[in-house]
Amino acid sequence: MANIKSAKKRIKVIETKTLRNKMIKSALKTQIKKFEAAISNKNVEEATAELKATIKALDMATSKGILHVNKAARRKSRLAAKLNALNA
Hints:
Layout: H1 5-40, H2 44-63, H3 69-87
Helix pairs in contact: 1-2, 2-3
């Protein structure tokens, strides 16, 4: 356990940030699962709407520093490819 006041504060801050990051990651995973479910149901309209929401969630996670920019871009590309394969 930390003895120095600033170290104790850092522990508190890290816990708070960890909880925020977990919340955003969890919401992102849930959104991706919704999109995957729409794809598996072959519902194009719902999948299109879910893709838009998923891209927004990916961008938010990137802006918060939770995901790397390239990883988010790769995921968006792969999700869009799945939707395009459904349309074709």
